[in-house]
Design goal:
By secondary structure, the protein is an alpha+beta fold. It has 2 domains: 3-69; 84-196, Peptide methionine sulfoxide reductase (Metal Binding Protein, Guanine Nucleotide Exchange Factor, Chain A). It is built from 4 helices and 9 strands, in the order ααααβββββββββ. The strands form 2 sheets. A 6-stranded antiparallel beta sheet has the order 3-4-8-7-6-5. Strands 2-1-9 form a 3-stranded antiparallel beta sheet, with no helix packed on it. It is globular, with a radius of gyration of 35 Å. It binds zinc ion.
Length: 209
Amino acid sequence: MILRPTLSVLLLACAALGCVGCESEPVSGSVPTGETSISDVITEPEQKNDETTGADSDRGNDRTDLMKDQPDRDAPTAYNPLTEEEQYIILEKGTERPGTGALLNNKAAGTYICRQCNAPLYTSDQKFESHCGWPSFDDEIEGAVLRRPEPSPLDSRTEIVCNNCGGHLGHVFLGEGFTDKNTRHCVNSVSMRFVPEGEELPAKIVLDR
Ligand SMILES: [Zn+2]
């Protein structure tokens, strides 16, 4: 009888100190009233830990939010540099001379990407021979190309531009019957770059504007 209170005190002390060795030994029914107390003592610090963890987690989120507000140092700040000829065609809506484009007769498998921003525009499967003097495609990679009717009432053509950077590509014509899709994207070679199949596509440059 003398030992019991002493043991209880010891157990409580051990539990409070987180003594693992004592935790499993005594509770086997020899001290029925102490069991609840030990359990309470043990769970209390665990709850405190949970609260602490939660607080840490909140602070972590705060840090993440702060980082989101910081400008991304790796974010691109400019598109690919352009030569004078590229600027004339891509930025000033110029047109390369027919039959001269570097990609006109390219029949290799791969992807045609935007010269200015690397956005994938067309696949080689979409290219066909129209004999019009410029690379021709009967479809575009979904969402890659934007159509804009020419503003002049004297020009019935529809301009096509890169949907990511707005760079001028050429014009699109419908109803000519070249292919089943009845569509011809007439694109300047200068506005594109060809990436052969199996070669990694460069990252699309997206500017935060
Ligand atoms: Zn582009």
